[in-house]
TrEMBL record:
Gene, per the UniProt record: acsA
Native source species: Aestuariispira insulae
Keywords, alphabetical: Acetylation, ATP-binding, Ligase, Magnesium, Metal-binding, Nucleotide-binding
Annotated Gene Ontology cellular component terms: cytosol
Protein name: Acetyl-coenzyme A synthetase
Reaction(s) catalysed by this chain's protein: acetate + ATP + CoA = acetyl-CoA + AMP + diphosphate
């Protein structure tokens, strides 16, 4: 472990910061001792149409579970991200778009973005889309993705963004689950000079979504696409006819803003539901404090809008704060692995936020690609998505940040809406690999297996004891599942699914998921999802999926497959099954290693003992534990003998 005092920021830097340590402690205490008072005050950072008189109405009791913030207030999220900035910063750039090719970029001012959003809101209205309807967005990282999201917010439609890397089946499942009647896509996406057939995927998905009767198509590449008359509409043609006058819909604080599907421990992804008022207050406040955002800063988060990071920290947080936010269409290693830093120089980026997996991959390419760029504009670095190993942290700090930039290691989840555990730059002493301390209003709690609260330095499961404004409100269409998933393991507390350590300074070190959820390159995936994709294949009789440590991805996907009678193991079949999973879910779910398993270790009652499979995948046979309760202990020897060489 590294010493805390090695990483303090320069004096000038600290003076400019929104908080020093004393201020952090004072504000934190206030937020915990008097949440009503604290959030009553900070809720005013957004513009309300009708101000709230109620701040917090929350019960974590499973029998009466409800979470409401500012609930008698009304507002419009798009008006907060656009209209309210027009007077002061209408001509300031809202979005810098950097295309896949380094020669391709553009800037959109707040005024231009506002006009575009109003027009598209009118386009949607003209197709009968209205407040409360669900609209699915399946787009590349282009400005129109932001326009689509904000236009939904403007008319009160609930967006569900589906990451462009997901398969037609995955898209269809999400459209069906939330009963979307419209989808917005592009002809093709482009990443790393490769085309992604978004419209073709959408056409395929819509074959099984008869109720989805509108498909808006943005022309990105001009490639050949199919067309369904009456259903499909070109974005540019509709926009040419639309008026730029569209008053924002008055929304109640607790009206849904968006649904975002994420993986859990069952096969079916859940629709995480976020609402309007509390979410925006929390996203904007965390964006300001965690990134020490000041007017005029150029801010870049490299995530995709298909993930929560893109929602809260490319779009809603930064735009609510009137920031200039950069949207990047490409990948870190195209045209070469210097790209991130070239973009930082080109657009004079001050704040840069990315994932540990990207840092590890770039670190592998050596210092050359970094050092040939200036990076003088950088002031602050951030990470999100998975634990960052101290080596990668140090490289990020020393090589990318020239030892000058603090790093904020931000821990949070799709469910939390915004960052919960993080340093505040300038206020928090950094320890490489630790997400450090809770943000205002967040009350972490460490518990053991039985739910007993642990004190002081400890290791256990991470819960949050009370609500914060950005918390998810429900699982779309299945409130019972919401209660079951998050509030039943440890009654009365929100269970994160993560394990953690807390050190003597009260710093948190997230150790990773303790449930059947994998984190592969920062992408979240349920083992059950991959298993259910595999067993759809005729050759597969049974499948078990576990994670194993992977140098770049954090976790890799290790698959054990038992074949159906009549099928023989072969390299061709192995390749076919890997392709199958890519087709069923998407490339992010590609198995890294696939082992033929004539039998799986099961208890006498038939339950697969994943613990043993995990140990084999981790190459840790010494700690297999007790195998005597297995129905057939000999299967373990076979699995060890035939494990995939690495
Ligand atoms: C899971 C949530 C929040 C946006 C990206 C991922 C892991 C996230 C960290 C971090 C260690 C982290 C956790 C969490 N995670 N950030 N800084 N240190 N682990 O959102 O897809 O909902 O995944 O990502 O395991 O539970 P998500």
């Amino acid at each position: 472990m590294f010493d805390a005092h090695d990483f303090s920021v320069p004096e000038e830097w600290a003076k400019r910061a929104h908080a020093d340590n004393d201020k952090y402690l004072e504000m934190y205490q206030h937020s915990i001792n008097d949440p009503e008072g604290f959030w009553g005050e900070h809720g005013k950072r957004v513009d309300w149409i009708k101000p709230y008189s109620q701040v917090k109405d929350v019960s974590y009791d499973a029998k009466d579970l409800h979470i409401k913030w500012f609930h008698d207030g009304t507002l419009n999220v798009s008006a907060n991200c656009l209209d309210r900035h027009l007077e002061k910063r209408g001509d300031q750039v809202a979005i810098i778009w950097e295309g896949d090719e380094p020669t391709d970029d553009k800037s959109v001012t707040y005024r231009e973005l506002h006009a575009e959003v109003c027009k598209f809101a009118n386009v949607m209205k003209s197709r009968g889309i209205k407040k409360g309807d669900r609209v699915t967005i399946y787009m590349p990282m282009i400005v129109e993705a932001a326009v689509a999201m904000l236009a939904c917010a403007r008319i009160g439609a609930v967006h569900s963004v589906v990451f462009g890397g997901f398969s037609p089946d995955a898209l269809a499942g999400r459209i069906q689950d939330c009963e979307s009647n419209a989808v917005i896509t592009a002809d093709e996406g482009v990443r790393g000079a490769k085309k992604i057939p978004l419209k073709a995927n959408t056409d395929k998905a819509l074959e099984s979504c008869p109720d989805c009767t509108t498909c808006f198509v943005i022309k990105r590449t001009g490639g050949d696409i199919g067309w369904v008359e009456g259903r499909d509409l070109w974005y540019h043609e509709e926009m040419a006819k639309a008026s730029a006058d569209c008053p924002p819909e008055e929304m109640s604080a607790e009206d849904p803003l968006f649904i975002l599907y994420t993986s859990g421990s069952t096969g079916k992804p859940k629709g995480v539901l976020h609402t309007s008022g509390g979410y925006l207050v929390y996203a904007s406040m965390t964006h300001q404090y965690v990134f020490d955002y000041h007017d005029g800063d150029i801010y870049w988060c490299t995530a995709d809008v298909g993930w929560i990071t893109g929602h809260s920290y490319i779009l809603y947080g930064p735009l609510a704060n009137g920031a200039t936010t950069l949207m990047f269409e490409g990948v870190p290693n195209y045209p070469d692995s210097s790209r991130f830093w070239q973009v930082c120089d080109k657009h004079q980026v001050n704040i840069f936020y990315t994932a540990p997996t990207a840092i590890r991959a770039l670190m592998r390419e050596g210092n050359g690609p970094v050092e040939k760029t200036s990076r003088k504009s950088l002031r602050l670095l951030g990470t999100v998505g998975e634990p960052i190993n101290p080596e990668a942290w140090m490289w990020y700090h020393e090589v990318v940040g020239d030892t000058r930039c603090p790093i904020v290691d931000t821990w949070w989840q799709t469910e939390t809406g915004g960052i919960l555990i993080t340093p505040l730059p300038g206020a928090t002493k950094l320890k490489p690999g630790s997400a450090t301390r809770p943000f205002f209003g967040v009350k972490p709690m460490m518990v053991d297996h039985d739910g007993k609260e642990l004190d002081g330095a400890c290791e256990g499961n991470l819960c949050i004891a009370d609500s914060w404004p950005g918390q998810m409100r429900s699982v779309y269409g299945d409130h019972e599942r919401f209660i079951q998933t998050y509030f039943s393991t440890y009654p009365g507390r929100y269970f994160t699914g993560d394990g953690a350590k807390r050190d003597a300074d009260g710093y948190y070190w997230i150790t990773g998921r303790v449930d059947d959820v994998l984190n592969v390159s920062g992408h979240r995936m349920g083992t059950a999802e991959v298993e259910s994709a595999l067993v759809h294949h005729d050759a597969v009789s049974e499948a078990a999926v576990v994670g194993y440590p992977h140098d770049i991805k954090g976790q890799g996907i290790y698959v054990y497959v038992t074949l159906t009678k009549g099928f023989e193991p072969s390299d061709d079949l192995r390749k076919e099954l890997v392709q199958w999973v890519r087709k069923e879910i998407g490339p992010i779910a590609s198995p890294d290693l696939l082992q033929w398993a004539p039998g799986l270790p099961k208890t006498r009652s038939g339950k697969i003992m994943r613990r043993i499979l995990r140990k084999i995948a981790e190459n840790d046979y010494a700690n297999l534990g007790d195998t005597s309760t297995l129905a057939d202990p000999s299967v373990v020897d076979d699995l060890i003998e035939n494990r995939m060489n690495r």
